[in-house]
Predict the structure of Universal stress family protein.
Amino acid sequence: MDDAPIVVGIDGSAPARAALQWAAAEAAATDVPLLLVSSANAGGIGASSPFVDELRFTARRNLASATESVQREHPDLSVRTEQSSLVAAQALLGHSGRARMLVLGRRGLGEFTGGLVGSVTSAVVAHARCPVAVIPGPDEAGRGANGPVVVGVDGSRASLHALDVAFEAADRYGAPLVAVHAWSDRDLVDVVAGTPGATWDDVGRQESVVLAESLAGRAQDYPNVEVERVVVRDRPVRHLLERAENARLLVVGSRGRGGFEGMLLGSTSRALLHTTPCPLLVVRRS
């Protein structure tokens, strides 16, 4: 998978351009190809419709403009384009089995970036077989360019995979890492069972051990990454969003336990997808 591309959705909108800029910078930094994908299928329009030619023309124009922009900023970057006849979500998901990651803007004019209100972005995040980055609009771009990488940790396999990705990103950026473990809404039966008189302080100490064990080994593998550990008795959304205010990147696992359980379908994921002020990277469980 060394030649696996970063795939970015293109629709000509300002948020899609912000996603393109972020994806191109990531591809250049990691020396991997960049694949620009634009859909010429708005859904529900038959092949004989007079609007099809307009959709194809717009897709070609958007891809040409995006390619020119990337080559101007990253002249040595390998860039390919694809004009797809599939609807946007299908076009992107078709690449998820072999892509390094998929990248979308949060909001925009077309299928790719309007999906948070509808179905495209949520469908891509829920079903992609690779990490998915959701990039906020240009008004928010750059606000945390020098900030830390923030990662949600709950001890699950999904969050451990997210930790690996977050450490690698922090090391590459030369940024500190903030590991946030929120535990109040996880099932605590296994923690307090058989421990008469256990207090919340006792549980808190045990949850600190969960975070420490999750970080064990990874910190040694990345000695140049400064790690801040945050353990809170609360739901994760508020603390992740608070930390994301000045973050360079927020990384979460696609599924976990406790506060992150079912996050692709529940309120946590919806809140993060809609409101995270920095790039959000959702990492699928391997």
